[in-house]
Each structure stands twice: as C-alpha cells, then as structure tokens.
Amino acid sequence: MRKLLILVLIIMSLALAACQSPSVTETVQAPLNSTEPPNNGYPLAESNESGYPVSDNQSSYPDGPDFSIDTPLNAGGTVVTGIGPAGVPIILIDATEVGELLGTTVIKADGTFQFDLVEGIPEKHQVGIQLGDLSDTDLNANDYVYNDNYYVRPLIGIMFDMVVVGQ
User: Fold this and answer.
1) pLDDT value at position 53?
2) Is 56 exposed, middle or buried (0-12, 13-18, 19+ CB in 10 A)?
C-alpha cells in the first residue's frame, strides 16, 4: 500500500511539473500606433503590400495561350465546344467531382474544339479544360503553366477555363 501511495505521488508531481514548465515561445507585439509589423519568428514580406499574394510576380513563366469554353452549358448536355490554340490535346474534367475525366480531344487547326460526351453533364457542376497528354507532340507543358485567365485548384491542378453548368 505504501509503495502504491509513493507511485501515485510521483506521477502527480510529474504531471504538476509538466503543467508548470516555462513557455518556450515568446510573443512580440508591435505597439498599436506602430507601422512596423511584429517580429514573431515568421519571415516578413519584402514588399509593403498587404494581403495575398505577397508579390505581383506570379510566375517566371511567360503567359500561356487563352482557352475558352462556349457558354451556356446546360445540364444534361453531351456536347461541349470552345476555342484554343490549334493542335493542343486537352481534357474536360468535372471540378465538382475533384477532376473526374469527362472527355478528351485535340484542338482543330481552326482553333475550335468539341467534346462529345457519353453522359450528360450534371446541373450546377463546374467543368473545366486542362492540358491533355503531350507525349506524342512537340509541345512543352511549361508553355501552359500561367495565364491570368487560368484557374489553379488544389487536388485538380491548372484549368484553362471553367464553367458552371446551368439548368
């Protein structure tokens, strides 16, 4: 019984000591009237701008070409058309379903494309076009990395255009 009491006291004192350990981090706060940001251990932005993104330089890549899906897209539709640079293989994805592949095609010489789908597109889903398989082409994927009109979605990637399907 005495050994059990000693063991309980040791465990309690260790738990109490852990709760009272001094804080390792220290918060440094700038005065309220200061224009200087606090130095809290995080790197400071190199510009005076606030918000996201920190800088105007989005990418070191040149602007990629423009792509466009013809609108409106109606629920249940099985044809999706649009324009883009000739000869580029593209895919149509359902962004609402985290990139589910809906179709593939290559943009024609006149700059138009058409996806003929087996199933109709669901209402209120977001569909978009992405770069297809470039393995049998002379095209470079880095030419399609950045454009102000492109959408970047987590878990999906770069979409050249995106449209919400109507009723």
Assistant:
1) 54
2) exposed
